[in-house]
Amino acid sequence: MALSISIHPWRVIAAINVAFFSLFLVLAAFPLVHIARVAFKRFTRIVILITLLYCTKIASGGLLLYLLGHLSDSNSNKEINIFIASMVLASLAPAFLLMCNFKLVGYINHLERGDNVPKKHVTLFGHIFSLRRNIVTLLRGTSEERLDATEGIYWTLVIVTIALSSAGNGVSSSNYTAARGLIRAAGILYLIEWIILIGLIVYAIRTVIVMKRVTYQKYVNFLLILAAIAAIFVGVRVCAYIAQAFTLKKGYYGFGQSRFSYLTGEWKLYAFVTFMPECIASGIWVVILWCLSKHLKHERYNTGSESPLVPKADDSDS
């Protein structure tokens, strides 16, 4: 009896994504550990957090791979709900990673200026639930305060979007009109989130370029190319999400079950536009981390001058 093996495109895509994030986990570990050891030991807990988040990303990708293999055989509500939960986990992980990296940039900016690190930089979720204060700060604050406020607004939108999309999927079988309205609202917020995210990415790249360190120059072009590719995939993903939200069919479950995803091959394109941007975005942050690590190593070991990024052992030394 011959053994027949069927290979579906969306399974291959999911497997590639899991492999990508496994590679990023290994690549990101070295510069993060170096930065934590050389610049400031308090950042070690952020390294642990990012490592756990990458593990969550890989685990959710594995769960997605398993569920995609069984959704064609069983289309039960339970499996769909588990699939949606895995998608939420997969979407949260790179957002957490992004936030942690901006905390790192904030630490380094303060240390380079010789300032004390503000307490608000230590609290990861300090500004999430203060939307009014964040908006006022965004309009009137300093550049550093505006960055923190933008981060807080971004996370507020992420939480609201997850709540709206989850509610829309929960009522889609019983109240189509309400489900469509909720998912459309989530789609609009999702678009706003990506606009903010692109702005933050541009800010990070500009920060890297403005430093004008010799060790950065060979990374800048590669970084810009990655950013351009990521912007293309982000655009595709946003268009897919908006089209999906506005073509939701009655009796269908929100994510991946609209006329848009059906006409483009059920889960195939949806899996592609969902995970590939996050793979590329993670690659960008790995490059940024390597740049920061090289910068610290260059300052400490190659220039002969003490960098403000490196803690002083004793103020009395001459």
TrEMBL record:
Stated name of the protein: CYFA0S10e01024g1_1
Keywords: Membrane, Transmembrane, Transmembrane helix
Sequence intervals crossing the membrane: 12-34, 46-68, 80-100, 152-168, 188-209, 221-243, 269-292
KW Transmembrane (keyword) present: yes
